[in-house]
Amino acid sequence: MQSFEYNANPGRVIFGSGSLQKLPDEVARLNLKAPLLLSTPQQIEQAESLKDILNGKVAGLFTEATMHTPSHVTDKALEYAKEQKADSVISIGGGSTIGLGKAISIRTGLPHICIPTTYAGSEMTPILGETADGQKKTRSDPKILPGTVIYDVDLTMTLPPALSATSGVNAIAHAVEALYARNTNPIMCLLAQEGIKSLAEALPEIIQDPASHAARSKALYGAWLCGTCLGSVGMALHHKLCHTLGGSFNMPHAETHTIVLPHALSYNAPKIPEAMKQLALVLPQSNGDAINGLNVLLTKLKVKRGLKDFGMKEADIDKAAEIAVSNPYWNPREIEKSPIRELIRRCWAGEEAKADL
Predict the structure, then answer these.
(1) How remote is the C-alpha of 99 from its chain's centroid?
(2) Three-class secondary structure of residue 93 per DSSP
(3) Fewer beta carbons within 10 Å, N or C terminal of the chain?
(4) In angstroms, rounded to a whole number, what is the distance separating the alpha carbons of residues 11 and 86?
């Protein structure tokens, strides 16, 4: 067996149908009196429902969370939190709202309770990506990790099937990269395989029957495991490309992950035979080929496969390749400009992934 180091992230998880009703107990357990509730403009209703569950005992609602956590929004939220004398933050939503909660928490030291409504996985990570002046910068700090995460499957029942699909593949991407991370370990590999298997089985069921409680539960369980992978080991080429495309070309987060994943995997495939084998075992209908397994999954999920569908121009391919190779970072295969450009071109064009990069 390979030698490894394993660090467990501290954090409390409350999982189950109806677990949102345990929020007042959690607030009391932490001895908090004035939580600031956070959401995006689209999820104000869910934030309002938290206020009801807490009998109105909140510092206020801030409902301007937005994609890629821009610093000007964070500054506005901090000002509001100070005015309202908030003693904690509660974020309800996907990566945008959770990111804002983390940004406030790391700057103020306020406890952060997180209630995810998508499969993004940000809630399980000590990582924060923020955008200022068109550049997205990421940092990692154990203090960024939310203290409590409440996973209530009932909150995901209304997640539209198309968003469930891309958000779920975004989660799968965390676990895929965990399998070949530089600092991977046997525990992470077990969590990654179980997380990928759960989501790869549940997501096509959700597309067929969005109201299936069993499929939604399985997907949320998989998302938790995949998020744990993202929070515990380093990521590589796939996440770097998605950050480049999201931060510099304003591509939508989950959709970009969905498009890039099979191509990033085909780039790394020659250097990660063991991970490819493990992946093929947990992706249905892969027939021993993980890239084929991912192509099959994305076809079943009826997702868009091209960045051009989201407004990326062909002229942006060279610039994206330039940025992607500019900062050196660890990856199992060396970063070479010409195949990276071809990888991005395939993502732009919406082609199926092929293992010939």
Answers:
(1) 10
(2) strand
(3) N
(4) 22
Over residues 60-85, mean pLDDT: 96
pLDDT tens digits, 272-294: 999 999 999 999 999 999 999 99
- Written as six digits, the tokens of 95 are 């990566």
Q: Mean of the per-residue pLDDT values for the chain?
A: 95
CA-wise closest residue to 182 among 230, 226, 234 = 234
CA–CA gap between residue 236 and residue 330 (Å, rounded): 6
Question: β-strand 135-140 against 127-132: which pairing, if any?
Answer: antiparallel
Distance CA 212, CA 225 (A): 20
SS3 of 70, please? strand
Residue 328 has pLDDT above 80, yes or no: no
Nearest to 292, CA basis, from 143, 230, 300: 300
CB atoms within 10 A of CB 72: 10
Question: How far is it, in rounded angstroms, from Cα 239 to Cα 284?
Answer: 24
Rounded-to-integer distance, Cα 253 and Cα 343, Å: 18
- Measured in degrees and rounded to the nearest 5, phi and psi for residue 208 equal -70, -40
Q: Longest Cα pair distance anywhere in the chain, in angstroms?
A: 58
Instruction: Name the E strands within the chain.
Output: 12-15, 35-38, 60-62, 88-93, 112-116, 127-132, 135-140, 148-151
Alpha helix (H) residue ranges in 30-117: 44-53, 71-83, 95-108
pTM listed for this prediction: 0.93
